[in-house]
Design goal:
Number of strands of chain B: 20
Largest sheet of chain A: none
Distance between the termini of chain A: 63 Å
Order of helices and strands of chain B: EEEHEEEEHHHEHEHEEHHEEEEEEEEE
Strand order of the largest sheet of chain B: 7-8-9-3-10-11
Helix content of chain B: 10-25%
Shape of chain A: globular
Order of helices and strands of chain A: HHHHHHHHHHHHHHHHHHHHHHHH
Number of strands of chain A: 0
Strand content of chain B: 35-45%
Oligomer: heterodimer
Radius of gyration of chain A: 25 Å
Largest interface: A-B, 31 and 46 residues
């Protein structure tokens, strides 16, 4: 084949080099903008907190009431985390290693409670036991709510356990309990801790359950201070404690995540030959599972359905419809903003592991640990200064996008990263410019993942309560606020249709998460995302 | 006419030099094999030629056109090369036909032209009828063929193949390799094949380029690099080799464990002698230039066998390859004789 040599290159290489760096600069600038944007509310909150004179801040921080609330929050976190880590690990290990009927699908009822927000849980249990109140009631409800995190995180770890090692341990004469502690546990330790951290974050930031059960934790304090006195500076000081605690949690999670990468990727054999058939194991696990499903699935659904059907008053469909519509509108807008904000960071993250990309991702991650009540407080204070934004749907949507940005960044980055570099290389060698590579290869391959990520953000935002309560425009009701206001005055019948609708909608991502195919995927990257998916479904 | 000319190329990843002052040129239509252990820089060199990474210094020319020079780089999509990565890497969202047509510009080709090229290419790779198949529906070997067709469809100046057969089983690998080489020869395309399989390199290429630690250790025709290695290490990278201690005397004679010295010894240079196992011959009778030994092990491969022989004189074990059938058993006393070039490398 004769080689045609183009001596006069149409574009000088120098010009190409310049174009590239321009693109990089634009990307960097966009990322910086998003990061700054993300930090505005928190910075504003910090400024508000330090408006108070220092002695007053100290007085506020060290008064008996504050110490009591911090102590109560800490104990609540510890109790729920400890209980669920132990029971959740036992349940997950049982589901995985004990021969059970319909094993593949047993996981669905065990993690279905993910779809039920804590305030719906509380309300359904209040309908059964009206006297339910106080610290232990809150512990009980939050244990029911967060158990699926422990089960799922452990289960994801178990999928990666090298079953060959278990067989080796068996041939070396180890018993089942020994095998668990010496072979399995070391391999799933990181997943268990990831689950524990997620539960801790959830409990710390929960508002609905503790508030309905009259247990004053930090989130309730902040909301009360904001509502009662409109002393936003004082509320901001307390919010700072919560931010600090969340940041510590997130940094811990980062540490664990970082070290989990170094663990070897196990070869996976079928677990079938290892299934325990002993009757005592089977009954124990089935009993545990039955108790949990009865308390966390049947009880709430029984209340929702019976109250829905038994309601003597006709349902006000126009209210239900308008609440659903505003929920969809504002959550959709929030998901869209989150997607747009996530694009520059995701592109950067998927391209390189550079220090800037990592730094940006870390800041976003810290923002993801912020409780809704903190974001709500920050934006309500900030919004009141900007009359064009105050009490608008846009501000609430912005709050959602901030709360769920980390989720959006994670799914967009993962989808972009899943496009193999070699395909982009091949496309480039076939004469496609980097723009063409992006539109003809990267985008078509990444789009389904990005879309699913946006859908999950959308469905998660629908359940958000504390920020919605603070930021919704006057007169606007969402499904979450309707449930909350009916439940807080014990009008359980009226709350039922709203709660039922919300739980059904929220069950969609839970169902997607719990599909056997998805859980059985062996990809480590998706594991990380799955754990993060969980973290965001609060 | 030269097709590829690389001069003083250097590529570093951080502080690590992966390609170090490397120069290489290829004639048009030549098929070169880059052979070396993993980590020697062969894939990096390929990616630098493709423009997928940027060298620190040195030049890369395609014919007379300068495509790579330290800080300025012609981007990969303007280089006109075909790139076939490991395991084919087909676009999973496109059918076989669309994969092959991927690089064809819709502005300069009419729809009919594209269809014609695609069907020609499918015929070339003997896969007519697979137009609408999805990449997930075809076998690994077929995927590699389609990847090659995709690269050839744009009539590239050069095709770069990065261990395209490494994921395939031995038999399929051999068949596909010879098919691909014939396709490349038929198209007259210059090609570079990266491999760590020494047999693959010797069988497929016009020129074998042996790489080690980011440098070219030796390059030449397969016969040259196999028969006349420049060092014992190079000899071992192209095939089985015996490296024996040896002495070269002032009168030009060489002695080693299998080269008995007859007559008077003069002063000599100490070094190593490289022998291919198939250059040694075994017989039951002694001759003037043979040495005696005992068979201690037989590895039987079917078409030939590798015998381990313990030499009587110094108890050294050497490997001897003989054609089947094997007339010896473990314990047989044999006489080993070398016939072939004596490759002596002085110790410095």
């Amino acid at each position: 084949m004769p080689t045609k040599i183009d001596v006069s290159s149409p574009r000088t290489p120098a010009a190409i080099g310049k174009g590239r760096s321009w693109r990089e600069i634009a990307l960097l600038a966009a990322t910086a903008l998003v990061v700054i944007f993300t930090l505005i509310p928190i910075t504003y909150l910090a400024i508000r907190a330090f408006e108070k004179p220092l002695p007053e801040i100290f007085q506020l921080l060290f008064r008996d009431k504050t110490l009591e609330v911090v102590g109560r929050t800490t104990f609540l976190v510890l109790i729920v985390v400890a209980f669920n880590t132990i029971v959740g690990t036992i349940l997950a290990t049982g589901i995985f290693f004990v021969k059970l009927p319909f094993a593949r699908y047993l996981i669905i009822p065990a993690i279905l409670p993910l779809a039920i927000p804590s305030y719906v849980f509380t309300y359904t249990w209040l309908a059964i036991v009206p006297s339910l109140s106080g610290f232990f009631a809150a512990s009980f409800i939050l244990i029911l709510t967060t158990m699926p995190y422990a089960v799922l995180a452990t289960l994801i770890g178990l999928r990666r356990v090298d079953t060959g090692l278990i067989e080796v341990a068996q041939t070396l004469g180890l018993g089942r309990v020994q095998i668990f502690f010496r072979v399995i546990f070391p391999q799933i330790r990181l997943n268990i801790s990831a689950g524990a951290l997620l539960i801790g974050l959830y409990v710390m930031s929960d508002f609905g359950a503790v508030s309905l059960l009259n247990t004053e934790t930090l989130t309730v304090s902040i909301q009360n201070m904001y509502k009662a006195s409109y002393d936003r500076s004082a509320a901001a000081v307390i919010a700072m404690i919560l931010i600090l605690a969340s940041a510590i949690f997130i940094l811990l999670e980062e540490r664990f995540k970082g070290s989990s990468k170094s663990s070897a990727i196990a070869k996976s054999y079928s677990v079938k030959t290892l299934l325990i058939e002993k009757i005592s194991y089977r009954t124990t696990i089935l009993a545990l599972l039955t108790i949990y499903v009865a308390l966390a699935v049947f009880a709430p659904f029984y209340v929702l359905i019976s109250r829905f059907l038994g309601n003597p008053e006709p349902i006000e469909f126009s209210n239900l419809f308008s609440a659903a519509l505003s929920t969809i509108t504002v959550s959709g807008l929030g998901a869209l903003i989150a997607l747009l904000l996530s694009i520059p960071i995701s592109i950067m993250n998927s391209k390189s592991e550079g220090a800037v990309a990592r730094g940006a991702e870390r800041i976003i991650l810290i923002s993801h640990a912020l409780p809704g009540v903190v974001i709500g407080l920050a934006l309500v204070s900030l919004g009141s200064k900007i009359s064009a934004l105050y009490q608008t749907t846009l501000l609430l949507a912005f709050a959602y996008s901030l709360l769920f940005l980390a989720k959006s960044v994670a799914s967009t980055t993962a989808s972009l990263k899943q496009v193999p570099t070699v395909l982009k290389d091949v496309a480039a060698s076939l004469g496609k410019s980097s723009f063409r590579v992006a539109t003809q290869v990267t985008l078509p391959l990444a789009l389904p993942g990005i879309g699913l990520g946006a859908l999950l953000v959308f469905l998660t935002a629908m359940k958000e309560l504390p920020a919605t309560l603070m930021l919704r425009p006057t007169g606007m009701e969402t499904l979450a606020t309707q449930i909350w206001s009916f439940a807080s005055i014990n009008r359980f019948n009226e709350a039922a249709p709203y709660a039922l609708l919300l739980v059904l909608i929220a069950a969609v991502p839970t169902f997607l998460l719990s599909l056997p195919e998805r859980l059985e995927s062996q990809d480590r990257d998706t594991d990380q995302n799955r754990i993060r998916d969980l973290g965001e479904s609060r | 006419m030269t097709s590829l000319d690389i001069a003083h190329l250097e590529v570093s990843f951080g502080s690590k030099k992966v390609i170090d002052d490397l120069s290489l040129s290829l004639k048009e239509g030549e098929i070169a094999a880059l052979l070396g252990p993993s980590g020697c820089g062969k894939t990096t060199l390929l990616r630098a030629i493709a423009g997928l990474i940027q060298p620190n210094s040195g030049t890369i020319r395609f014919g007379a056109q300068l495509v790579g020079l330290s800080s300025v780089v012609l981007p990969p999509h303007r280089r006109g090369i075909g790139y076939v990565p490991q395991q084919g890497a087909l676009f999973p969202h496109l059918s076989v036909a669309k994969n092959i047509a991927f690089g064809l510009d819709k502005k300069s080709h009419s729809k009919a032209e594209i269809e014609k090229i695609v069907s020609e290419m499918l015929e070339l790779i003997s896969m007519t009828g697979f137009e609408e198949s999805q990449p997930s529906e075809i076998s690994g070997g077929q995927q590699t063929r389609v990847a090659l067709a995709r690269a050839l469809a744009v009539k590239p100046k050069m095709v770069l193949l990065d261990e395209p057969f490494s994921a395939l089983d031995a038999q399929l690998r051999g068949e596909l390799r010879s098919d691909v080489v014939s396709l490349l020869r038929a198209a007259g395309t210059t090609a570079i094949l990266v491999t760590h399989d020494r047999e693959e390199a010797l069988v497929s290429a016009d020129r074998v380029v042996l790489m080690r630690d980011g440098k070219i250790a030796q390059h030449g025709t397969p016969e040259e690099v196999y028969e006349h290695p420049v060092s014992p290490t190079v000899a071992m990278s192209t095939g089985d080799a015996l490296v024996l201690a040896g002495v070269r005397y002032a009168d030009g004679r060489t002695s080693s464990a299998v080269h008995p010295l007859t007559g008077e010894a003069l002063s000599g240079e100490i070094g190593e002698v490289v022998i291919r196992p198939e250059e040694l011959h075994l017989s039951t009778t002694a001759s003037s230039n043979s040495v005696e030994g005992t068979v201690v092990k037989i590895d039987y491969y079917g078409h030939d066998a590798m015998l381990e022989v313990k030499l009587q004189k110094n108890s050294q074990s050497i490997n001897v390859r003989i054609a089947a059938p094997v007339d010896f058993v473990v314990g047989s006393v044999v006489h080993v004789q070398h016939s072939g070039p004596i490759r002596f490398f002085a110790k410095n």
